[in-house]
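Page 47, continued from p. 46.
Same chain as before, 255 aa.
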Amino acid sequence: MKASLKVIAFANQKGGVAKTTTTLNLAAAFAEEGHRVLCCDMDPQGNLTMSQGIDPDNLKKSMYDVLVNRVSIREVIHKREVDVACASIDLAGAEIAMSTMIGRERALERALAEVVDDYDYCFIDTPPSLGLLTINALTAADRVIVPVQCEYLSMRGLIQLQNTLAMIRENLNPDVEIQGILPTMVDTRTLHAKEAIELLEENFGDRVFASRIRKTVRFAEAPVKGMSVLKYDPDGIAAHSYRQLAKEVLANANS
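Result:
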């Protein structure tokens, strides 16, 4: 499946690290460059779905039906600024519903096999936990991007994520690896942020992206309007940051 469709999961079991923001805005930046991108919302909160102006409560079918009832993923893709395979709160029950399924960790991988020729990239937004939904995302992924808020507590989660990835490599997906760690919500005025980035670079070296996502009010405003920050404020610093990140990820992927 992986030959033509590159799958990138965005993961960090700590919430509030701009994971959804990064999934959507990087997808929008890739789309600007002419790539065909599918965003897959694997978070029961449905924030990615909502940030493209889609109401999760009004969906007839969602990723729950894809994972649990084996509905075609095409049935839950909504075409907006980017294509979104939508989530709804039903997804919260998916882990229990899938618990007795054979091959439950590969449900997403199977689903994506249907659209392997439709897209160049699939970006998966994961819930803030290392449960079965995230394991499905990591099993389907070629690479993982880890958004990390620039504070010490946020970084401790990286160790747990690395342990989970090691387990997944051993049992489910030997090729998955961290493509990069992305410092987000950076407040350049504080010493704490500067020290946190230094600590990241000490521990993870060149796996830390050169791009930095700074704190800006635009990130809160854009989803309310149902659009990416690249569309909402195309000339702003936030849009520029994600375009820079897109160049870095693409260069990284081709090297």
